[in-house]
Amino acid sequence: MHLFSNKTPPFPREISEERHLSFLRQCFSVQPADRPSADQILAFVQGELLHCIPKILQTTEAMAHNPHHGIPDVMTEFKRRVSDQMPSHLIYIPEMKLISRDELVTLLKPEAITEEDISNSGGWSRQSAIESKLVPGMLKYAILSHRWGTSEPTFQDLKRARACYKKLREFCTKAKRKREGAGYKKLHEFCMKAKEYGCDLAWSDTCCINKESSSELDEAIRSMYRWYRDAYICIVHLAQSESLETLGIDEWFIRGWTLQELLAPLRMKFYGSCWTPLTKNENDKDDYKVIFALSRVTNIPPNDLCNFRPGPNRAWEKMTWAANRKTTRIEDIAYSLIGIFDITMAIAYGEGDRAFKRFMAELIQNCKEWQILIWAGGLSGYPTEPACYHTTNEATLEVLKNRQISWWGEGCGDSDFSVTKRGVGLFFPNLHVASSSSHHRSSSWSCNLTPFPRHLP
């Protein structure tokens, strides 16, 4: 074996494909008379591996526990949250620059979390401390809710700002000098308010979505409800209000996208047009005066404003919340509701009012309440917007809210229905209405509800 070892090249001490090939080439480059047999080479390699493998395992184990690489459980959870729950782009406030979520590991340094930090988490189990406290604490971000105005900074503007200026603050200052800074000033003020809440990360729909990327835009629309839900604080800028008494005049309350921005967050802070807080609260959703003021303006029950849960239930009622709201793009009438109703559908700008038709098809498939089939207006066979569910007719509201025909489909009629090729199959209540007057103005009504099977086209 000693003679054999003298005729073979040194065995590679680092495992790599390139070194393996080099070793084998050198073995078979010697003269045939001196060339070792295959069995000799195999025996030699096996002997060398017995010495190498323990060293390799020691090196791997050392790397796994190396503080510079972080605690494996922490790093795994951090990367999972970044890829699954964080917006694709954010503003990194300490440096005031636009970043991608892939940069968060480098910027936030989760490897700095130690076992001592985990054990000092105050009664949490090890896994809970990592998943529910330490990692979320590093990734907390503020999110902006507002009415779009003039000169809003775009994703491309901030990318150019990062390339041309060291800090976004410098870019905002230059923009304001050119009288183009209303949107930039709002963005800067938002970031400063986010910083007061201890957030190093911020997100705004004006500049943190690359709308030139269809995949990123699709992800943003599908995930937006969850992003608002998961935000540490939602900062609301009301451009036309300065107090709770004047909330009703602000356009923020009649825009389509702001409905989910009102319902989704657990923590909200309202600011007036000059960035003056409307209350002294840290979280305005904890103040019943704010909640009742919001309920008065929106007609949304206070409990839903505080503890809203998305889903297809109470669909008729939720549609009335969106009835008076408008969007710039017709497709957004549907897209702005998918988070509220927990509906999944493809995003396809350019399809026009077909988006709402597709949305209604998905909603009816998931909703088990016949009230969703009660609308007025629209096209033959389906409603075209939430306004089709709006009514001020007291008799209609009384029937819908009657205990015998409740919001949850109890009472007469079929509480379940199905969408078939022929249409919607259900037992439909037939209302025979008699009036005490020959005219439509009647003082009393009598109703006889008779369910019968019918297919709606």
TrEMBL record:
Residue intervals of the Heterokaryon incompatibility domain: 141-245
Classification via Pfam families: HET (PF06985)
InterPro entries referenced in this protein's UniProt entry, alphabetically: HET
Protein name per Swiss-Prot or TrEMBL: Heterokaryon incompatibility domain-containing protein
Biological classification of the source: Eukaryota, Fungi, Dikarya, Basidiomycota, Agaricomycotina
